[in-house]
From TrEMBL:
<dbReference type="Pfam" id="PF12328">
    <property type="entry name" value="Rpp20"/>
</dbReference>
<dbReference type="GO" id="GO:0003723">
    <property type="term" value="F:RNA binding"/>
</dbReference>
<keyword id="KW-0819">tRNA processing</keyword>
<dbReference type="GO" id="GO:0000172">
    <property type="term" value="C:ribonuclease MRP complex"/>
</dbReference>
<feature type="compositionally biased region" description="Basic and acidic residues">
    <location>
        <begin position="145"/>
        <end position="160"/>
    </location>
</feature>
<dbReference type="InterPro" id="IPR036882">
    <property type="entry name" value="Alba-like_dom_sf"/>
</dbReference>
<dbReference type="GO" id="GO:0006364">
    <property type="term" value="P:rRNA processing"/>
</dbReference>
<dbReference type="GO" id="GO:0000171">
    <property type="term" value="F:ribonuclease MRP activity"/>
</dbReference>
<dbReference type="GO" id="GO:0004526">
    <property type="term" value="F:ribonuclease P activity"/>
</dbReference>
<dbReference type="InterPro" id="IPR020241">
    <property type="entry name" value="RNase_P/MRP_Pop7_fungi"/>
</dbReference>
<feature type="region of interest" description="Disordered">
    <location>
        <begin position="145"/>
        <end position="187"/>
    </location>
</feature>
<protein>
    <submittedName>
        <fullName>Uncharacterized protein</fullName>
    </submittedName>
</protein>
<dbReference type="GO" id="GO:0000294">
    <property type="term" value="P:nuclear-transcribed mRNA catabolic process, RNase MRP-dependent"/>
</dbReference>
<dbReference type="GO" id="GO:0001682">
    <property type="term" value="P:tRNA 5'-leader removal"/>
</dbReference>
<dbReference type="GO" id="GO:0005655">
    <property type="term" value="C:nucleolar ribonuclease P complex"/>
</dbReference>
<keyword id="KW-0539">Nucleus</keyword>
<dbReference type="InterPro" id="IPR014612">
    <property type="entry name" value="Pop7/Rpp20"/>
</dbReference>
Amino acid sequence: MGNGPLERKLEFEKRNQDLVKLPKYAKVEKRPIPHAPVASPYAGPSVPKVVYVSSNTPFMSAVKRVQKLLRQAEKRATAKISLEDTRKTEKQKLAELANSAEQREEVFVKATGRAIEKVLNVGKWFEEKESEYSVRVNTGSVLVVDDKEQKQNDTTKTEPEQGIAKSDAKKRKRQEKPEASDDYELPETRTRWIKMVEVAISLK
C-alpha cells in the first residue's frame, strides 16, 4: 500500500540500514508493537493520554475517544477554579482561568505504517474546527522486532504474471537489496525502524 496524500507531505528520517534480502526458504513473522497501558480518561494531567490507531480502527471511533479524553481534561482544569470564591478578587479569578487555558492537556493520537494516513485524517478532522481545537503533528520512528523462521515445506512455484505486477519502483528497490549467500546463517530475529506519526490535540 502506497503512502496517502497527507503522509506524502511529511518528512521522515531514514534510519534503516540496508537489510539483507532473505533466502527463499525463510519467512518473516512480525511481532506486535508493544504499547504502554492505555491511561484512564480520569487519570490526572501528569499521565499522558494516548489513543493508538490501527488500520482497523473505525475513523469516528478514534475521533470520539479523543473528544472524550479532552472533555475529561477540561473538567479537571475547571474543577479547581471557583468563580464564586469570595476570598479571591475578580482579577485573581481571571488569572486562574487564563493560566488554565495556557496549560491545556493534550491528547496524543499515534499510528505506524499503514495507519498513518488514518491518524493524519483524524488530525485534519480536528484541525478543520480550528476555533475549538489546536493540532500539531510530530514524526518519528519506532524500533520493531521481526522473527525469522524457515518455511516447513518450501514448494512454492513461480506463477506467470497475469496483469497484476509490483510497481517498477518496488522491483528496483528489491533488486538493490544485497542477496544472502548460500552459507547464510538465518538469525532468529532482526530489528528495523518503521515510521510513526503522533498528532497532539488540545482544546483552545
